[in-house]
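Next comes the chain:
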Amino acid sequence: MEIDRKQVSRDLKELYDRAEPSFKEFKTSEYIQTRLKEMGLTDYKTAGTGIFGTINAGKDETVALRSDMDALPFNAEKTEYRHLCGHHANMTTLLGILDNITKNRDRLKYNIRYIFQPAEELVSGSVTMIEAGCMDGVSKIFATHTTPDAELGSVALVYGGCMAGSNHFDIYFRGRATHAAMPQKGSDTVTAACEFVTSMQMAVSRLIDPTLSGLISFGMIHGGSAANILPEEVYVSGTYRHFDTEVKETIEKAIKTRLKSVEEFYGIQIELIIHDGTPPVICDRHLMDEMRQVCEETGIPVSKYDSKSMGGEDFAYYLKHAPGAFIWQGVSTGGGYHPPLHNKDYKVPDEAVYPCIMLLSGYLLKGLR
């Protein structure tokens, strides 16, 4: 089986150049629909910018293949977007698989449901697609994603817990503003917020079973307008990650307990908002065994990387409807440091998408292993 490398390179560039925000992937969606039509796939549905369709091979089982579509802001003003998480590569991989499938329809072992999903970065796009019917009749589902933790040209197969459950939260510390030299006449919301942030690291190290995985991080702290004013309000935003319900509940209880004590000690009012999050991505072990078998039969290198990621992924919502597997493909060229996901310098070489095109094509088509 040959990969159309010129088309892969073209897709990667075209999709990278069309990087767009969540739920606004209009040019991206237009390009994908053009490519689908070039393959003779015209019987698809749209859900906003999302796209899904079925290649009916008359089989008993339907296997879904999902790619995300959205990009990340490249500047603080959010006027420029880039594929800093490599979603252009995920789309290119799926297009490459579909290209192989449409050229070998008579060899299909399953019906195929292809899903191009918007808004993964908002961890809500999958819900939109599921509500539109993309998982109806699906018996198993696969997704791919690039990673700098695996070598270029290889795949990484992580059994069981692959990506963490994720929740984001906002906290508002509110009190009475006062001169910084007279803290007793007001409320020190800055110190209150700082005390809370630093103390929460103890929740992970002291309250959670060390054999389990948990994390809490704070990405934003905003407050104040001058060095000599204790501000009326400080805003803090963060996220916590987990693979187990016990860990999730422990972190949430610790946040609420600690905030209550800070509120009472500093005499302030605190508002906590915990947003709906994603459950963890748990890969089906039987499907991962099948992926490993295909790799062995086709000579696709399997990376030694097999670690859990504390990153969140709304692919988890699909797994509530069918078992599935999330497959990493490497971008690291060796020689030391490679920029991580979400870094402004994150790059995906053309060769990075070849392994999963070969892997999933080999899995779905007869006689190609």
